[in-house]
What does this fold into?
Amino acid sequence: MSHPDSFTSAKTLSVGDKTYRYYSIPDAEANGLDGVARLPFSMKVLLENLLRFEDGRSVGKADIAAVKDWLQNRGASEYEIAYRPSRVLMQDFTGVPAVVDLAAMRDAMVNLGGSPTRINPLVPVDLVIDHSVIVNFFGDDAAFGKNVEEEYKQNQERYRFLKWGQSAFDNFRVVPPGTGICHQVNLEYLAQTVWTKDVDGETVAYPDTCVGTDSHTTMVNGLGVLGWGVGGIEAEAAMLGQPVSMLIPEVIGFRLTGRLNEGITATDLVLTVTQMLRKKGVVGKFVEFYGDGLDHLSLADRATIANMAPEYGATCGFFPVDAETIAYLDETGRDPDRIALVEAYSKAQGMWRDADTPDPVFTDTLELDIGTVQPSLAGPKRPQDRVLLKETKQGFLAALEGEFKKAGETGKRVPVAGTDFDLGHGDVTIAAITSCTNTSNPSVLIAAGLLARNAAAKGLTSKPWVKTSLAPGSQVVEGYLASGGLQEDLDALGFNLVGFGCTTCIGNSGPLPEPISEAINAHDLVAGAVISGNRNFEGRVNPDVKANYLASPPLVVAYALAGSLQIDLTTEPLGTGSDGQPVYLKDIWPTNQEVTAYIRQNVTKKMFKEKYADVFKGDENWQKIAVPQGETYAWDDRSTYVQNPPYFEGMAMEPELVTDIVKARVMGLFLDSITTDHISPAGSIKEASPAGHYLRDHQVRPADFNQYGTRRGNHEVMMRGTFANIRIKNQMLDGKEGGFTRHWPDGKEMPIYDAAMLYKQEGVPLVVFAGKEYGTGSSRDWAAKGTKLLGIRAVVAQSFERIHRSNLVGMGIVPLTFQGEDSWQSLGLKGDETVTILGIEGDLKPRQTLTAEIAFADGTVKNVPLLCRIDTLDELDYFRNGGILQYVLRSLAA
It folds into this structure.
């Protein structure tokens, strides 16, 4: 194995009767990298990666030394490294467009005279189909079967395409629908903590690392696996052997002490951590947890905290390997040889945490005594807006008056046609145990089941206006809820199994019953949802529901019983028992001891082994899908789900020169915290929208529109859905909601898509202006792809979320940030200006300052300095090629 080894770190490790080659951090420390033993554990993973991939080109001696130098400055580094994750994880919403792009690249390779098989994943890729099941049916035993039937009916074209990919590409596996959520399947089965690969007759051992096309890939950090979400665009590049280009990160240490008190859940803890870290400001940074509080956190609790890294803004939320990691690998039925390797390797590398481990050196730290955590929710519209359970009622009433502008309407109730109940502001219309954060954690799911058991015993039922659902993260959950009879107790309150998948948190909540929906919309009610998810952004959970709260699974059940956010669950009764007495939350809340006893009895290694024995096989629906064969895909022009995208049309081996942006028009003026959901929604498609018109024109009935998330394989739908969120507000339109703009110079109001196409005919480039944290939320490549296809050349914001900024560059769009206190408001923009940005063509450098000439309608011109956020030389190459995929394709064709 020829490999420059500047710090003489290559050596062998014997475990049992097996020998592994590895790159030793202690040896590298002895040979010139003094002090690296004190690096954060997550940084040791990056260091090992550089030692292993040193080639004198993409990784040189100086890159490795830069990690040692970090110990001195520990701050934000301008030093760029090339990082190569072990594998890629995908879900189907983001995975389908990635596989579409790979299929399109095969066609483009043929056009450039190369063999299509040059386009193949070079690292292992697992795609878990978990985002397509919708809660159309709920509240009875038939719901699961009917939802599965509907899912297959709606998604045949997509599933056929993915099955083709499974047979056409090497290194690519598909976990069929109905298995679980990708992050939980990753945690319980796919992840190995230490990965191995045979290279030149030797087995090399190295840390398991991954990037995923879902921002909650970070969940696996709980297992000591460094992983985070990237856009589909970056994931495709990683699959094709391109390194992930990144700056050496700041690492924030989060010391945890103490333990959770009686009756406090892991969800209460993670909402507290999320609020603290958002306040601290950790966007683009690593967060690593340390301290003796880790000794009292189960692995599932750690995974719950790691899962919400996107909500606290960090790249990852890392937990080092320790005895709890080993116990979990054993409990979930991993191979004993692998478990032995994980322990031996982690100890040999100084990657093992125990009571004697000295604290690593961090950029900065913060601390939480876990014992101070109180019952919490987050809402009504952001995951970091934590509110104590005892203050939730007051918080909602304040939002009703302020945010929702319903002063004096606290007691307003309206009749619901054909029922014997009425509806008011704050009534909980959705109570969903959903999403990867909590459905992977036995302690909170079992607490929900025990609370349901206690409630049913007292004669309580869920309120009739609540849409109740349970969508576990894996089939193991179904097993342990059933084995002790808790599923029957949940069923009694309407929390029947509706599917295995992401459901409500991604917007797959399904429609509310029609009379309820009509009452809400006719009377402009602020309806509520309480979900155990991680995302509660506006317009995401359900179009009829404005106030969305995140909560633990047992609190989800409690709010289904109470039926309203206008009830203080800490002092007011949930309802009246069968004995005529009021029942309070404290009367039915299970003890920690009861939860632990149930786990001990019902969550078994045998169950994990059985449920994952044949994970790639799928049910009979999956097995029946017929697959077209061939190295290139036979595109079907009639398909409304999968189309060949236009990124490579007319592409030559040499890229065209990029040009300055001259006299661009403004497509939108946006405020702070515009999420990727605002830019590229995943939820339902409105009939009157441009995407709705397209589907109608293609003979798709509105009942079969499905949603944006499932149609991501069709650029025609997705570009029409860009900036089409029902709650987005373009400030050019005086507070009007929805995806509209004005076309200039005539000032006519129209949908953003229609205006973009008109500007395209006129040959006019476009720009977008925004505030702080532009592009927060899910790692959604369509937020960048759609922006590109609309003809938007640049986005100017006060700051960007990490993934979205790199996705814009990956699509050949320039991200620019204002300097100092500048904003579009301070400059007085109205949207009728023209914008010229010079300095793009020619000798552009990373992070160069450019000037925008803004010409106002009255003839005045302002010159505004902007920082070009093309951050690295690799990104500059991608940009000059028109995007990362074009860059990779040209490299492979050459």
